[in-house]
Amino acid sequence: MQGKVEICGVNTAHLKTLKNDEMVELLRRSQAGDQAARERLIEGNLRLVLSVIQRFLGRGENPDDLFQVGCVGLLKAIANFDVNLNVRFSTYGVPMIAGEIRRYLRDNSAIRVSRSMRDTAYRVLQCREAMQAEQSREPTLEEVARRLELPLETVNTAMDAISVPVSLYEPVYTDGGDPLTVMDQVRDTKNTDEQWVERIALREAISTLGEREKRILALRFFDGRTQMEVASEVGISQAQVSRLEKNAIRTLRKAIC
């Protein structure tokens, strides 16, 4: 981040950074109860928090809120990091901070998701972060499903359930004029204006038919019955069914065309 950026009262241009040896020593002292070392660790890793929350901007959440939640993740990482492991603190801290932000977004979503679905999604996120650390790449959902021994459909459903909803009026592009929104890119090929008009006309045309003609058309074209089956159910001959069916269709065509 370049220049001065104020977030939660923090001037990012003045943020400190820590060398790896200094980080390890401060972690040892902090976990032993040294509050001054803990404060220095927090200050020295605020840039790490800011780098993580960049992934979650643009979702309608206040950046200051995300920053504070990220700091909670940082505190957990500082308290739980094993200094005896031969890994950098950032390798452990980034997933912890990101996980805390994801939990915040999930729990504060406008759409309520069942507890069991949220728990499944949380397991998927944890597993994905662990596999990413192991493999140094983003695992596929198929790989995560195999690791958790869950059906792929369950994993997909859980991840969809915690996805942040997008407004139809969310701008996706602008060239200086009116912005292009999500709604502009969504097209319904099934419910067009022409089809709505045709449906209304057909409904009005059907209302002019007698009850027996309506029943014959419903049995023939909605239930897929043969004329012999319709004749047996209605209690008339097949010839009468054929005649009434043709007359009804002729009436509908005249009303629509």
TrEMBL record:
Residues 65-78, 226-252 form the RNA polymerase sigma-70 domain. Gene3D superfamilies: 1.20.120.1810, 1.20.140.160. InterPro entries: RNA_pol_sigma-70_dom, RNA_pol_sigma-B/F/G, RNA_pol_sigma70, RNA_pol_sigma70_r2, RNA_pol_sigma70_r3, RNA_pol_sigma70_r4, RNA_pol_sigma_r2, RNA_pol_sigma_r3/r4-like. It holds the Pfam family Sigma70_r2. Keywords: DNA-binding, Sigma factor, Sporulation, Transcription, Transcription regulation. Sigma factors are initiation factors that promote the attachment of RNA polymerase to specific initiation sites and are then released. Belongs to the sigma-70 factor family. This is RNA polymerase sigma factor. It comes from Faecousia intestinalis. The lineage of its organism: Bacteria, Bacillati, Bacillota, Clostridia, Eubacteriales.
